[in-house]
Amino acid sequence: MLWFRTPDKVYFKKGCMPVALDELRAVYGKKKCFIVTDTFLYKNGYTKPIEDKLDQMGIQHTCFYEVAPDPTLGCATKGAEAMRQFEPDCIIALGGGSAMDAGKIMWVMYEHPDADFMKMAMDFMDIRKRVYTFPKMGEKAFFIAIPTSSGTGSEVTPFAIITDEKTGTKYPLADYELMPNMAIIDADNMMNQPKGLTAASGIDVMTHALEAYVSIMATDYTDGLALKAIKNVFTYLPRAFEYGAADVEARVKMADAACLAGMAFANAFLGINHSLAHKLGAFHHLPHGVANAIILTEVMKFNAAAAPTKMGTFSQYQYPHALERYAEAARFAGIVGKDDQDTFDKLIAALEELKEKIGIKKTIKDYGVDEKYFLDTLDRMVEQAFDDQCTGANPRYPLMSEIKEIYLKAYYGK
């Protein structure tokens, strides 16, 4: 049996946020709302329209705005304690992936103070058949996710990552209990993203969509979402990067693309592009979207091999077909060659051109990562990337030596 899951409600269109929030009182009868965001968004007034709307509806509210990039267990613990004191029946996470991830973790800690993160973070082959049963969510509070960047798709995914700042251990949580109850995709919250964020988050969307499309878990239900996201990114990311808030259509279409890709990979999952990027970011502090971008075309070439060393685990097809799938995605985006291989080559060239347009450098080395330190950490990155939860859904199962080769090519540009 396969499945397709999203939040109960997904609202989208520029200016939709205040209308969607009406439901808190009119439909759900909520009385107390806890907002989770970061300091920048709070100080720059991003929470004010939400607070004004809550005031208008007579809903009590408070705001926790201490979320930092790569949110920590300490931050989540502090936020959850504030929740327990306030006792909200609604939580609104406003921000990028960090704020939404932190909000999800606080939600777990608020509803289940005795939750065991080690058990919740256990690896699994099938998200529906886990050794550890994730605690039931939503019994105390309704969870709303509102993104302010066009990238992570966390507003429609059942994933969250939290870091134990004392040990450096990252806890990747994945369970459909973590799916927000409502997502509000309002481009008004995304109009003023700086160019660097637009580029990094935008190419992250492309990576989500491409990995979901070639995943061993891809289905007809996820394919359409992934294809439309890929096309939107090719068409609108350069415009959003170049013109920012002046190109409203580009901002709206990139907001849509991020959410579409999020729904795709929430159900089809990702692949080794993210496995490698997770470790590259953790060891060398590259922004997640940038790490994905540098590795992207090398991973695609690896996946597209006609005779891979190893097939993906539990694939839904008899023979490798990543090359065919990449070619299908390219044609949908208007990139056409004389056959699948030629179309794939043109797709690789188009992605490299896209990265250049939005200021993404070509190699890991170009981002100032010290060569000696990179080589010293390489074996640890390889081992951890191999064990990453994303690796299992990749269409070609990698050997450690192959992961190492991809990292080296991405570092030196060979």
From TrEMBL:
Residues 7-186 form the Alcohol dehydrogenase iron-type/glycerol dehydrogenase GldA domain. This is Alcohol dehydrogenase, class IV. CDD domains: AAD_C. InterPro entries: AAD_C, ADH_Fe/GldA, ADH_Fe_C, ADH_Fe_CS, Alcohol_dehydrogenase_Fe. It comes from Lactonifactor longoviformis DSM 17459. It holds the Pfam family ADH_Fe_C. Keywords: Oxidoreductase. Signal peptide: none annotated. Residues 198-411 form the Fe-containing alcohol dehydrogenase-like C-terminal domain. The keyword Oxidoreductase applies. GO terms for molecular function: alcohol dehydrogenase (NAD+) activity; metal ion binding.
